Amino acid sequence: MGRLGNGRSGGAAATTRVGPGDPAPLGGDRGGANGEAEPQRSSEGWRLGAPRLPRPLVPRSGAELAIATRSRARGGTQVRGEEAGSQARGASPFDCSLASCLLRAWDPAHAGARRPPAPQAGPRPPAAPGRSPECEIERPERLTAALDRLRQRGLEQRCLRLSAREASEEELGLVHRPPGHHSQRAAANGFCVFNNVAIAAAHAKQKHGLHRILVVDWDVHHGQGIQYLFEDDPSVLYFSWHRYEHGRFWPFLRESDADAVGRGQGLGFTVNLPWNQVGMGNADYVAAFLHLLLPLAFEFDPELVLVSAGFDSAIGDPEGQMQATPECFAHLTQLLQVLAGGRVCAVLEGGYHLESLAESVCMTVQTLLGDPAPPLSGPMVPCQSALESIQSARAAQAPHWKSLQHQDVTAVPMSPSSHSPEGRPPPLLPGGPVCKAAASALSSLLDQPCLCPAPSVRTAVALTTPDITLVLPPDVIQQEASALREETEAWARPHESLAREEALTALGKLLYLLDGMLDGQVNSGIAATPASAAAATLDVAVRRGLSHGAQRLLCVALGQLDRPPDLAHDGRSLWLNIRGKEAAALSMFHVSTPLPVMTGGFLSCVLGLVLPLAYGFQPDLVLVALGPGHGLQGPHAALLAAMLRGLAGGRVLALLEEDSTPQLAGILARVLNGEAPPSLGPSSVASPEDVQALMYLRGQLEPQWKMLQCHPHLVA
Asked: Which of these ranges, 393-397, 423-427, 577-581, 669-673, has the smallest mean pLDDT?
């Protein structure tokens, strides 16, 4: 489940639905008005797993969007949003059981303390009557532009509109009297009157008894208000990345640096990642999640994730001057959805380039709805300055987190902020040629359709003998058809193990499913094969994928599934074998590692090896094969599939043995269809052997795969 709302003041509400298709209530599906199944490719071999029945409003059933247009700050301060359009209504709740929060549009001239204006490219337009010129970037059009884009993309129609109410003084008093993320206990600040994320966290703790809440602040400004409110509270893990420039960027606070880690019982529960130069892009943001945030988040094991979703950290924004593209926020959202059973609430904070803001909001909402993230653009190579910041934050947090111990987390000297690393753009000076080039690049980027066409089938399951105990989501398709017999036999001919009838039948079904994925009719799928034919079937799947449209194929093989010796080493396939005999980088595109024995080791392997390699490779097809002796439990397999779903536009094919439990097939079908994987519980410590294997492979592969790097000294 996910939510998108707005964090700086209240307003009216709208919502979201679970998957693509016609408008439906939260928890509904794409069937007809009476809940009947909607036929899809039924004449060509597809059938629905079950009729689509209306479902009640429940917390995990989908994403929800609450849009604020008007709020009244108590104590006499008026904040207005009448200009936001005729759809405006009411004020909005802080209902964390449904994780609904708010977008806001208001006149910041009444917001109290304000930061100095950011430099703008070119001349600033004249201020509107009655407005302070320094507050021109905070205007109602931020809301209407985002809402208009949601409507254009058909995303608002998949949302459930909520009624709204004002927050009570008692609710506001959970953190204020009175006094998104800049607002403090007794003072408004930085366009923020009420700190909605902080109020939501306190509300979730008080009313719903939650004990562990993760707050992720990807706004380009430090959310010092949230930090101050929870810095001694171990029940709230606060992560903020922000433009810092060695303290020379607003809010100019020493406590925004990496070594500010909380105090008292909250030591280690404040995580600051200061960006010391502008121009951070997709690779930098993803690296920060993989090497810093997610290891701590899994160890923390949150029950709820709140996101201070400021899109001034996106490309084109005059405040942030960063270069992350809108689709990057889809990937960040999807990585967070594997936590807390998918209970994610995104609350709009900053974002002052209307086009970039609108696209980024769309990317976040479609991901909360369960859609796969579009592929990332550009090379995935973190810059020197980003690696310095990540390593400094890891070093500051290592004494407090087991997941960072026994790794190389030595702090490094910071390079001067004026230094621009080789191969990376210099700071974007307002009005300068680099800033104009960035604006031109953004315009070109936004002219392209960012949302990939949704396949008619999100997930399909191809089994040779359907199991009556297999429980599938209502909109997962059970495939009945197979490829032509002659074609199947031709692919099977080189493999003796595929000569048996049961293996040939399973192969025909897999080929039909794979063709549907490569043709864009199916997004993801699950196929079964006899254990004796697992290696041969995987070999056929790899070769078929590469010969029928896949340009870069990632194969994650678990168990006794060796890479075919005659598979070409042409850089088009990356083979990762987990549960190999030993840790070995046999080539840049062939890596083997033993299966970690502890959950902590498994998470370290996924976050520190599998995903960095996958994001560096940028595949357009992912195969996950659970072969003989794979040794992976259902929740671990589900987590792996869910995190790999962020690659290749969600085009993931899972290959299972026929004697795998129906529960394993069911849980994989659910996560490939967009549901959150089950929690692994509190993370255990990786064994010394697991740590040694991981560090060895990283050392061998970092020169070729830059996403593995989290230490700046390794940058060429």
From this structure: 423-427
**Is residue 345 within 8 Å of 101, Cβ to Cβ?**
yes
Q: What is the pLDDT of residue 664?
A: 92
8 Å CB contact between 217 and 308: yes
Sorting pLDDT into bands at 50, 70 and 90, what band is 145? very high
Q: Is the distance from CB of 521 to CB of 456 less than 8 angstroms? A: yes
Predicted confidence (pLDDT) per residue in 516-527, tens digit = 999 999 999 999
Q: How far is CA 278 from CA 303, 311, 360, in A?
A: 33, 15, 19
Does position 24 have pLDDT exceeding 50, yes or no? no
Instruction: Please choose, from the candidates 284, 273, 271, the residue with its C-alpha nearest in 3D space to the C-alpha of residue 315.
Output: 284
Residue 557 three-state SS: strand
Kindly tell me if the per-residue pLDDT of 206 is higher than 50: yes
Q: Show the tokens assigned to 454.
A: 């949704």
Cβ atoms < 10 Å from Cβ of 157:
14
Buried-state track 5-27, b at ≥16 Cβ within 10 A, e below 16: bbbbbbbbbbbbbbbbbeebbbb
> How high is the pLDDT of residue 124?
39
Q: Are strands 236-243 and 584-587 parallel, antiparallel or unpaired?
A: unpaired
Residue 341 near residue 276 (C-beta atoms within 8 A): no
Residues noted as catalytic: 182
Give the pLDDT mean for 590-598. 92
Contact 619, 649 (CB under 8 A): no
pLDDT band for position 447 (50/70/90)? low
Q: What pLDDT sits at residue 460?
A: 95
| pLDDT of res. 592 | 95
Number of neighbouring beta carbons within 10 Å of residue 696: 15
Integer Cα distance of 479 and 189 in angstroms: 56
Q: For residue 655, report the phi and psi dihedrals to the nearest 5 degrees.
A: -110, 120
For all residues of the chain together, what is the average pLDDT? 78
Q: What are phi and psi of 402, to 5 degrees?
A: -65, -30
**What gap in Å lies between CA 277 and CA 585, rounded to an integer?**
34
Rounded distance, CA 670 to CA 569, Å?
34
Phi, psi of 354 (to 5 degrees): -60, -40
* All residues at 6 or more sequence positions from 637 whose CB lies less than 8 Å from its CB, including other chains: 626, 664, 667, 668
CB of 26 closer than 8 Å to CB of 160: yes
What's the gap between Cα 425 and its chain centre?
26
N- to C-terminal Cα separation, the chain: 41
Paired residues of 330 in beta bridges: none
If one counts every other C-beta atom within 10 angstroms of the C-beta of residue 410, the result is 12
Strands 457-462 and 63-65: unpaired
- State the sign of the Cα–Cα–Cα–Cα dihedral 310, 311, 317, 320: positive
SS3 state at 459:
strand
CA distance 218 to 240: 6
Digit-coded pLDDT (tens) for 515-572: 999 999 999 999 999 999 999 999 999 999 999 999 999 999 999 899 999 999 899 9
Q: Phi and psi (nearest 5°) for 466?
A: -55, 135
Q: Give pLDDT tens digits for 271-304.
A: 999 999 999 999 999 999 999 999 999 999 999 9
Most confidently modeled range among 59-73, 310-324, 659-673: 310-324
Q: Rg (Cα) of the chain, in Å, rounded? A: 25
